[in-house]
């Protein structure tokens, strides 16, 4: 089992514990705001399961029907997370509206807030694990799950402070008002998760910093060639796809051209271990005098 899968399984276990704690806090108080917090935890568990499934599919090797691998499965998981987040936010808004129509004071607020606060601390710790490890492992599913949890941690902190204020002031209407604010925050989080994932599904190029590194490596390691042009990149989960045309002197032997390509590929893989590289060798008359010039 890969490290990515182990972290995804950890997300499910942490999500179940947090869900149980937040549901208990809601049961103690009857707070609509704490109910909204608990409802978001249901989404956390569901999306963690979806992320695990996507990670396992993405880890499958390339086959006849999917010669480029299954790496984009993680982006589908992240899009699903965004959709589920938005659905949860709409359900919370519905409950908040009922709370506005019939506000009521909370029961056992101190106990409920303590339980909910402890659950939020667990979420905060796991959120850091997901984002840091997800970036290191280049897993969109883990990073998306981490950002979702981050929004949960922020909204939970606001809920705890707001519910405490409602208890102190006696303004029962603050409880559904906070639930509505949580829902708006969740909607924004879901939108960001979906847009980030859609860029991967649309074969978005690597970021400018990585592209500059790729250009520099080609320029430095292509000694013996004349130029490289039509450089294209895209990313799919942990995999980066790189392809370009390499122009060599017409008298260059196949063996010599192959050696140049091997040298470039080794250097690129040292920088991007999961890269899949395609180099099309062309004779001198195909030069465009543009793109990457060889040092």
Brief sketch in words of this structure:
The protein is of the alpha+beta class and 295 residues long. The chain is 68% helix and 11% strand. Strand 2 (239-248), helix 8 (254-271) and strand 3 form a beta-alpha-beta unit.
Report on this model:
The protein is α+β, with helices and mostly antiparallel strands. It folds into two domains: 3-201, Up-down Bundle (Alpha-lytic protease prodomain-like), CATH 1.20.1510.10; 208-293, Alpha-Beta Plaits. Helices cover 68% and strands 11% of the residues. The chain has eight helices and four strands. It has helices at 3-29, 32-58, 73-101, 109-137, 140-169, 174-201, 208-221, 254-271; strands at 225-236, 239-248, 275-282, 292-293. Strands 3-2-1-4 form a four-stranded mixed sheet, covered by helices on one side. α8 links the parallel β2 and β3. α2 runs antiparallel to α3 (73-101), α4 runs antiparallel to α5 (140-169) and α5 runs antiparallel to α6. The longest helix has 30 residues, at 140-169. It is elongated. The chain starts with a helix and ends with a strand. The model has no long low-confidence stretch (mean pLDDT 80).
């Amino acid at each position: 089992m890969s490290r990515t899968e182990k972290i995804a399984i950890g997300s499910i276990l942490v999500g179940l514990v947090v869900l149980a704690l937040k549901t208990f806090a809601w049961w103690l108080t009857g707070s609509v705001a704490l109910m909204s917090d608990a409802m978001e935890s249901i989404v956390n568990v569901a999306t963690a399961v979806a992320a695990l499934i996507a990670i396992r599919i993405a880890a499958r090797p390339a086959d006849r029907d999917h010669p480029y691998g299954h790496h984009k499965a993680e982006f589908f998981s992240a899009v699903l997370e965004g959709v589920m987040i938005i659905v949860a936010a709409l359900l919370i808004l519905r409950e908040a509206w009922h709370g506005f129509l019939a506000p009521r004071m909370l029961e056992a607020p101190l106990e409920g807030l303590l339980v909910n606060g402890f659950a939020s601390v667990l979420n905060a710790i796991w959120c850091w694990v997901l984002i840091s490890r997800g970036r290191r492992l280049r897993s969109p599913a883990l990073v998306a799950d981490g950002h979702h949890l981050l929004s949960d941690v922020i909204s939970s902190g606001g809920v705890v402070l707001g519910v405490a204020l409602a208890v102190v002031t006696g303004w029962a209407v603050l409880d559904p008002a906070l639930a509505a604010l949580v829902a708006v925050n969740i909607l924004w989080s879901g939108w960001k998760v979906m847009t980030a994932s859609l860029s991967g599904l649309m074969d978005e190029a690597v970021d400018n910093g990585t592209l500059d590194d790729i250009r520099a490596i080609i320029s430095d390691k292509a000694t013996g060639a004349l130029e490289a042009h039509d450089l294209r990149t895209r990313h799919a989960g942990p995999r980066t796809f790189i392809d370009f045309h390499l122009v060599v002197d017409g008298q260059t032997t196949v063996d010599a051209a192959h050696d140049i390509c091997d040298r470039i590929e080794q250097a690129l893989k040292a920088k991007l271990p999961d890269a899949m590289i395609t180099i099309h060798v062309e004779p001198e008359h195909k030069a465009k005098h543009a793109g990457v010039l060889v040092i």
